[in-house]
Design goal:
mainly alpha, 2 domains, 4 helices, about 80% helix, elongated
Length: about 80
């Protein structure tokens, strides 16, 4: 993604950079990560992960593991 941003702003390696490419470098190291961080924080805040949800997830996983273990033992018993 960084390469795309720098290309958009006209960055060329190993040459003196234009004011536009320098502006792109500054944006790619400051404002763009800041905006992405805010979006990630908003997504995390919207995710309903609390104590009750954690208990539900752990219970569901335990039930799945037990069911899969039981199914595996039934298959092994039927094969041999």
């Amino acid at each position: 993604m960084l390469g795309l941003i720098l290309t958009y702003f006209g960055y060329v390696a190993n040459v003196e950079q234009t004011s536009r490419s320098l502006h792109g470098i500054i944006l790619s190291m400051s404002w763009i990560p800041c905006v992405l961080l805010v979006l990630a924080a908003a997504a995390m805040a919207a995710y309903p992960l609390n104590d009750a949800m954690m208990v539900k997830i752990e219970t569901d996983l335990k039930e799945r593991r037990e069911r899969l273990s039981h199914e595996k033992s039934v298959r092994e018993d039927s094969l041999g």
